[in-house]
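In the previous chapter we treated chains in isolation. Here, by contrast, the input contains two separate entities that must be folded as one system, with a combined length of 312 residues.
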Amino acid sequence: MSNSYLVGDAVDVRIAYPPGHLRAPFFIRGKSGTIDQVVGDYHNPEELAYGRKGTEKLMLYRVRFNQTDVWNNYTGPSKDSLIVDIYENWLEPNEGALK
Amino acid sequence: MSDTPSHDHDHDHSHGPHPYQPDSEDTPYEHHQVMAEAVGELLIEKGVITADEMRAMIELIDSKSPAEGARIIAHAWTDPNFKMRVLENVNDAAAELDIDAGTIPIRAVENTDDVHNVIVCTLCSCYPRQMIGLPPDWYKSRSYRSRVVYEPRAVLKEFGTNISVKTEVRVHDSTADLRYLVIPKRPDDSEDMSEDELAALVTRDSMIGVTSL
């Protein structure tokens, strides 16, 4: 399968709270970051968790966030960052972001 | 038989023996222990794995220690080409040193003057076990997992690690199919050391990124 996003693309993490075993941490939902790396495709862990074969593969990305964009009261320098491994089903394009 | 010595301070402490640590047989058998054992027994009963395979896997994991990661780091410090291969693919590079890093892909992230990397798994406790052994208890604690993503510098300070504000602190949340290993910065004054001496300097915590060397 091909990847929808390229390194450097601005993305938002979807805000969604479906039930079940999910691999997008709560604290990062709704936050905006950029694609740091396209890792490759893996079986969907949210399907595998329920014993389904997870045949639908999902692209996995490393997404970089500025800490000051993630936390309102982040006290460290603005260069501090956070990289989270996120599957494509949790990402959407950040249309408003400047490239 | 002697009396308790008479003295006039308040008795807010006991003169009796300390309570013993309970034997493990006397501690409650928790739900998740029961479930884990039940799953293990079912897998064997249904022929998915054999008891021998399970024993072999437990022994394999128990045999791993940070010493193997330290060998990789020391070799990477002394051989720039090897370091590039480590940064490309830890599992393959480990195999060059006859270290079996398992099948889960492990990525290395390198500490430099500009970037200090630290690893966490906020969702559970993903850790490169197949290469450096079982994670320390604090790595799995809710406190570490929740705090290191939002106040990494405060957490690092508690480990005695002060990172300059000129250096980016980069936290890696390993929530998915990859595991991470930090390549610590090689200590100053280590130019004359042998690879074995260098490996002895590399600690588990430095490969998680909570300490520098």
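The first helix of chain B runs from residue 31 to 45. The CA atoms of residues 18 and 65 of chain B lie 35 Å apart. Compare these points with the single-chain example from earlier in the chapter.
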